[in-house]
Specification:
Elements: H1 2-36, H2 58-82, H3 87-91, H4 98-136
């Protein structure tokens, strides 16, 4: 009986020792794993992925986008929010002031782009948290 207690104590000490060793290893490698993951602020960005243009004409098409898109966004903003989607009120605006409408649209585009960046950042944080939780609590798919 005494021998069995000693063996149980010895095996539990070995189990505790190996468990502590594994936990130390996990703590040490946590920082290196996080560095290896894709960080949101270290991702590369290439504007050519988002500019639809023929090869070699990206600069020309981008400049056309920079002129027309804010102007169209400014017109939409004036029509929807200022004129309250009323065509009669919209016609009363002085639409000849291109720069004013372009500046309004530029601000609207800037707010939309910042919102998209913020949402992408939140999604990145959520994905990182989910992957960290999956590491901490792995699911057991043995089929029974």
């Amino acid at each position: 009986m005494e021998l069995k207690k000693k063996e149980n104590l010895r095996s539990s000490l070995i189990a505790n020792e190996s468990r502590e060793s594994a936990q130390n290893y996990q703590r040490q490698n946590l920082k290196s794993r996080r560095r290896q993951e894709d960080d949101f602020f270290n991702k590369s960005f290439d504007y050519r992925d988002y500019v639809f243009s023929p090869e070699g004409y990206e600069g020309v098409v981008l400049s056309i986008y920079l002129i027309t898109l804010p102007y169209l966004m400014g017109l939409m903003f004036l029509f929807i929010f200022v004129a309250e989607a009323s065509y009669e009120y919209f016609l009363q605006f002085d639409l000849a002031s291109f720069f004013i409408i372009w500046a309004i649209g530029y601000e609207v585009c800037a707010v939309l782009i910042l919102a998209i960046i913020f949402l992408a950042w939140l999604k990145s944080i959520s994905n990182r948290w989910n992957s960290e939780q999956a590491r901490k609590h792995p699911t057991n798919h043995r089929g029974y």
